[in-house]
Write a structure and sequence with these properties.
Shape: globular
CATH architecture: Roll
Organism: Anditalea andensis
Protein name: DUF4783 domain-containing protein
Number of domains: 1
Strand content: 35-45%
Order of helices and strands: HHEEHEEEE
Radius of gyration: 19 Å
Strand order of the largest sheet: 2-1-6-5-4-3
CATH topology: Nuclear Transport Factor 2, Chain: A
Helix content: 40-55%
């Protein structure tokens, strides 16, 4: 009986790790970009962008290339330097699409942020970013 317990524990642990890995990998992007939002670095944030990004930056909206999106985000961060950034909700919509709702706080204004990601669970990318003044 004791000889069966160790393989059984190993099997159960393997099943848990295999089923939990996609959620861990999907959350990896948000764990990496939270500090970027807190420092306001468009140069670092753009590394997570899709080749085309849907932006809505408090009224300025459209589809932008990665390079154009960096300029728009850099301008936003320059005008609204961050003092805090916190994720308040996350969810999934369809296959390989995940969204995050956050609050971005600057000295002048508070913004509600919607971050939309897609792609394989081990390497999701940001395809949409929205900042709306609260």
């Amino acid at each position: 009986m004791k000889k069966m317990i160790a393989p059984l524990y190993t099997f159960i642990l393997t099943i848990i790790m295999v089923t939990a890995y996609p959620a861990i990998a999907q959350n990896k992007i948000i764990d990496e970009i939270i500090p970027i939002f807190k420092t306001g670095s468009s140069k670092d944030l753009v590394k997570y962008f899709n080749t085309t990004v849907e932006l809505n930056m408090n009224g300025l909206q459209g589809d932008f290339s990665k390079n154009q999106a960096e300029v728009v985000v850099r301008d936003f961060f320059k005008k609204n330097p961050p003092t805090d950034f916190q994720i308040v909700h996350q969810g999934e919509s369809g296959s390989n699409i995940k969204y995050y709702i956050a609050y971005y706080v600057s000295n002048e204004h508070n913004f509600r942020v919607l971050i939309k990601t897609k792609g394989p669970k081990d390497k999701p990318i940001i395809y949409g970013l929205e900042f709306k003044k609260d």
